[in-house]
């Protein structure tokens, strides 16, 4: 089974998102379409079109796409009741009623693919408050299959040569390792 929705379904998503955007604008007229912004360099909303107010940003296609991919993978899609509840929460957030986006923390790890390696940035406080932890991370990363080398070129910056990994795998490995080893 192809896990991707057919093109005709994507056209329906586009129509639904247009309708949903109008519903949200009617309920929260202070909201505007803009380019997504965030303090986190790899946040999913960054540089995508979002409906935003002073309080909240929402990437409208995420809601129906989530439901479509659920269905494409044989799981139950979002029900009408769930979609209504989500729409109401979104309207409340656009009005400033809801969880603050500022409560999000900077990610532990940022990974950028370079030409023949990966550039890893660690959250700034990690090497400052846990100086030996970065060396421990480097040593364990060097022991992983496929990792040719790990070099530190700054307090919170590493270069990793690992041909068979992608950005997501490297970011997940480093993030999970840090979550297990950082004191709580």
Describe the structure.
This protein is 43% helix and 18% strand. It has helices at 7-27, 62-72, 80-94, 125-129, 131-142, 167-181, and strands spanning 32-35, 49-52, 57-58, 109-113, 118-122, 147-154, 157-162. The strands form 2 sheets. The protein has a 4-stranded antiparallel sheet. Strands 1-2-3 form a 3-stranded antiparallel sheet, with helices on one face. Strand 6 and strand 7 (157-162) form a beta hairpin. It is elongated, with a radius of gyration of 20 Å. The relative contact order is 0.11.
State the share of residues found in helices, binned by percent.
40-55%
Structure summary, number of beta strands: 7
What pattern of helices and strands is seen along the backbone?
HEEEHHEEHHEEH
Tally of individual helices: 6
Distance between the termini: 43 Å
What structural class results from the helix and strand content? alpha+beta
Principal-axes shape call: elongated
Strand content: 15-25%
Low-confidence stretches: none
Mean pLDDT: 82
Q: How would you characterize the largest beta sheet?
A: 4 strands, antiparallel
Provide a concise account of the structure shown.
43% of the residues lie in helices and 18% in strands. It has 184 residues and is α+β, with helices and mostly antiparallel strands.
